[in-house]
Design goal:
Layout lengths: L1 H27 L6 H38 L5 E4 L3 H15 L4 E9 L2 E8 L1 H10 L4 H4 L5
Antiparallel strand pairs: 1-3, 2-3
Helix pairs in contact: 1-2, 2-3
Length: 146
């Protein structure tokens, strides 16, 4: 399961997040910027995203497991409280890699000054499509027999 979730995360980073970053870098480039500089910036952005994904890979997997369990129980979202380290890391991972890739949505509610509860709703149809493109067994990622 961990290998499948990492494979899915790598695919999302390389094929969705990195593409967005590349477009943003090109849009922010000035007429003076040369192609080689833009490409170097894009490679650097990809390395940074891959490093962040590696740091958050366990939290990403655990957050997906939690969201999958909530879905099986009839829920359509999970709430993560940033006052709890485990919840905070899962929220960070899911927002960084699912919400940014338009594979989930999130809302926040302030609980106290600078503290929040993140409610994250996965777009299961979109995530299933991306998992299929990545040749990842989403049921395995979610800990389901399948």
């Amino acid at each position: 399961m961990a290998d499948e979730s990492r494979k899915l995360l790598r695919y999302i980073v390389r094929n969705l997040i990195a593409r967005q970053e590349a477009v943003d870098i090109e849009a922010d480039a000035t007429a003076v910027d040369r192609g080689a500089e833009i490409e170097a910036d894009q490679r650097r952005a990809l390395r940074e995203e891959e490093q962040r994904a590696e740091e958050l890979s366990d939290a990403f997997r655990d957050g997906l497991l939690r969201a999958g369990a909530a879905r099986r129980a009839g829920g359509n979202a999970i709430s993560l409280d940033d006052r709890k380290d485990v919840d905070n890391r899962q929220a960070d991972a899911l927002i960084q890699f699912l919400v940014r890739a338009d594979l989930a949505s999130s809302t926040t509610r302030e609980t106290e000054r600078y503290r929040y509860i993140y409610t994250i709703s996965v777009d299961w149809d979109a995530l299933t499509r991306v998992a299929r493109e990545a040749k990842v067994d989403l049921a395995d990622v979610l800990g389901q027999q399948g």
